[in-house]
Known about the structure:
Blueprint: E1 6-8, E2 11-13, H1 18-23, E3 30-35, E4 38-43, H2 51-60
Antiparallel strand pairs: 1-2, 3-4
Amino acid sequence: MLADIVKIGNSKGIRIPAIILKECDIDKEVDIQVNEGKIIITPVKTSRVGWNKRFKEMHENNDDILCINENVDLELEDWKWK
């Protein structure tokens, strides 16, 4: 597919058709890299969206307690991560 370079303020850009954005699951943010003279555009996934709000709600509801005893000796032979 050919695309025209367009002036955007002091920069230049390209228009990416909606069908391509959808196929690549690009929504709001991308990572742009240059590799051997090629531009690589990769979608950025924000998997932790809303976590700050949820943590604040947990704190307000006193639900932000430790699940394990913070005095656990991690050097014990019988202690294992699960």
